[in-house]
Amino acid sequence: MLHLENAQIYPASHIRNFAFNNPQKVSIRGRVTSAPEVTQTFYHTPKTTFILRASELGVKQNWQKTEGLVKVTLYGERKIEYGDRLFLEGSLLRPLSLRNPGGFNYREYLANHDIFALLKVKEKDALRRISSQRDFVKNVFNLKEKLRGIIYQYLEPKEASLLSAILLGERSSLSEDIKDLFIHTGTIHILAISGLHIALIASIIVALFKLFRLGRRLTFILTILVLIAYASLSGARPSVVRATIMASVVLFGYLINREIEIYNSLGLSALIILIARPYYLFEAGFQLSFLSVISIVYFTPKIEGLFPVSNRCLFYLVRVASASLAAWIGLAPITAFYFNIVTPVAILANIALIPLLLPLVGAGISFLVFAFFSASLGSIFAGASWLSIIVLKGVAGLISRIPLGYFRCASPDIFFFFGYYLLVLIFFNYKRLRISKAKLAITFALAANILVWAPFFRQTSDKLRVTFLDVGKADAIFIEFPNSSNTILIDGGENDAGRWVILPFLWNKGIKKIDAVVLTHPDNDHVGGLASVLENIKVDCVFDNGMSKESSSYNNYKKLAEEKAPCYRLIKGGTEVSGLSGIKLFMLHPAHLSGDKDDTNNNSLVLKLVYKKVSFLFCADIQKQAIREILSYGPILKSSVIKVPHHGSDEGSIEEELFQAVSAKAAVISVDRNNRFGLPAPEVLERLKTQGAQVYKTAESGAITISTDGEDIWVRTMIGAEAP
Predict the structure, then answer these.
(1) pTM value?
(2) Are 396 and 532 in the same domain?
(3) CA distance 715 to 723
(4) Are residues 65 and 146 in the same domain?
(5) pLDDT in tens, 515-567
(6) What is the dihedral of CA 691, 696, 700, 702, to 10 degrees?
(7) Which of 240, 232, 72 is nearest to 139 (CA)?
(8) Do 160 and 273 fall into the same domain?
(9) Of 53, 54, 295, 421, which has the most beta carbons under 10 Å away?
(10) Residues 320-344 as b or e (16 or more Cβ within 10 Å = b)
């Protein structure tokens, strides 16, 4: 607790005091303190990320001493090694904070690791190696890189990435499909080096040393040293450090013939980790790692007691099942809180997959050891590793297809946590508490009724809510009708905003079905995330304007829209969407596709939403030609809120006529904070100001939610105070 307070004090020269929301061009000198990771951007170009301990900072050629960690991203082909002292030029900025409801707070995550600044170094920016150093850590990272190279030399990329994650903690190359497979079966911990891996590796090492007839004391000492080296090799994440410390405590206990107290060793592990990094206390990985061990240690014997068996085989089966159930009982609410998923199938999946991990780890370690010295022996054990991976993936795939094996949910609140763990403790201690079975049954029946019926008694909102999600220089707008009667999603952001922004937003709200998805036009910054939404959320109907575009994003959307949506319709200007409770939704443009067939912007769908006296005009990416056409609607354009066309690009005097016709009280502009295209244009902001509109930009405000009761509107932003 003392260190937690002290950890918040930083000197004036710290790098965090020079990183702002808007990127600024700087020069930095510092040393690489992590193993560089080489991955690919969305556009399949290479990028390298690493942590730099800064020592000097130059702003406009004015240099000064600084300190602190910076996360650096280098774009293009760059060769960097741990320990290199570098000179870098690039754009320095603060990490993103929580910008969308239900999203990931990247700034908080990095701050927990004492990182407060990002540096983006493009291919044209300067990079120079000043010097290099070699020490124990660099030798460990070089060894890790060599082992990773061996894995990819002998195995295909998919299998190699999985083995590299399990043995080396290298998860950056894992495909999203593989991650989803283990997330949906509740066994993602298999891909992160944890207590299970450390226990297996320690057992293998002890067995090997005994095979060479090393003395008992020497065996335990060498095993502890190997585990410490392995923890460094795999990245020293909290779960690895916790498991390594606990294993070392156990081995040291054996060494001095002392009885092991599991809770003491667990507490010692937590204390050591939190002294080094006090903010790990607030991280999901730290909490899940320690809670899983506590749950297994505390609940497993109690669950075993419910199923007394005398047969040895059945006894071991009951023990494995009890441990799996114990871990699930302890972790289910935390997993739901952080990841909006509950995986009952994890109880079965752990029973089936964890035994398969032992031969995989054994074959994998043997493969790396023998391949390090002999290519022929490496090929033999590479085959065994490949087979183990195929079996593991195959069994996980079968389990993932079990109906209702997992489901998405809203994040539980503090009252649910309190009630859940209280009931669990009562159930496993009812005899000690002298509670009769009848009273216990009544208590659980009452709790079950509260859980089932509570949603029906929650007060629904009588307000219309429109949320403009922050998806960079792209659009994604979610509309919730009064009393939760209908929902509509307009566009899906760029790249895969569906997976990283829209789906977490929906799951966090407990939304499992969308009535309609509207694609205004097929550009990537509008269609990019819709495939993920269609894949994971039930959608009743999909609307678009009929334009197509040759891109992977559009092709994925089109395929899934035809496969998943019961209703897929083309719509055009002059039509109204019917069946909406108390709401009118009009399509104003285009009446027909016109102009250049590639002019997707001017053929964007323009929508008007009306609720009593309040209306919204969604202008997508229309430009001069389309603006000129919709001006023919005259008074119909008048709206309370306008989503500004084409991210605030300057369309000249014709745009001024549009703003005059709309006369909006509030204007929303979807734009990225890096301001790659100089948007919004100053002329656009001046025109809106002249018309008296309050302007909100996602770059500054994050997600923007506008609520209305049909008479007034209220604006709430993710960043900043609520505005009237």
Answers:
(1) 0.89
(2) no
(3) 5
(4) no
(5) 999 999 999 999 999 999 999 999 999 999 999 998 999 999 999 999 999 99
(6) -170
(7) 232
(8) yes
(9) 54
(10) bbbbbbbbbbbbbbbbbbebbbbbe
